[in-house]
């Protein structure tokens, strides 16, 4: 009987930690990283090899060799940190990491990217996996460069672009409830559940999905006003009030890939 593959998850945050637990239940050998001592201890308690690793602007701290050595697949799920530090060179940090990925000859890298690589416009364009990234924002361009670096340097790469992540304890309506002057009422909603994203990742790891780029979206493309007013009612929250005197800008993220 062939032994289960060893999967490394670089960044066990809200998405990555849940993925680690799911993969462990499927009897994969799982390694996970975090900068949080509390999260590292939770990983250990669940039978996951835990590594404290930090990618700074010019150096990687921690036992990177122990984490990367003999991995079959590496999932990279670390936030770019560009909101807090717009000057951060995310693409450089990814290239720095990928040089070690090459040294340890990891066969497959799965990079959790973002749909922010696509521009919002008044004509509400649709973007699928064949669409060329066209973001003009600082953060969008840096994420595009990170994707390109990983695709160029990996033996094999899968780029997964989740829409806005939601789950049992996380939903944007909690921040929007009761607020007024919310922009873009007619733009479509682009959201995806954490379970849906992690199901895609599990299917990629298992070889059930084999595509270079995957868009992850699970919620209907209702317009923002309709969706958030309905969701507020479902949550028992005060509905947000949208501004109606300006043209909405947005985009529609679609996927051509069957994800289950």
UniProtKB/TrEMBL annotation:
Transmembrane segments: none
Any one annotated GO CC term: cytoplasm
Any one Gene Ontology molecular-function term assigned to this protein's record: aldehyde dehydrogenase (NAD+) activity
Stored Gene3D superfamilies: NAD(P)-binding Rossmann-like Domain
Native organism taxonomy: Bacteria, Pseudomonadati, Bacteroidota, Flavobacteriia, Flavobacteriales
Protein name: Sugar metabolism enzyme
Domain NAD(P)-binding: 13-204
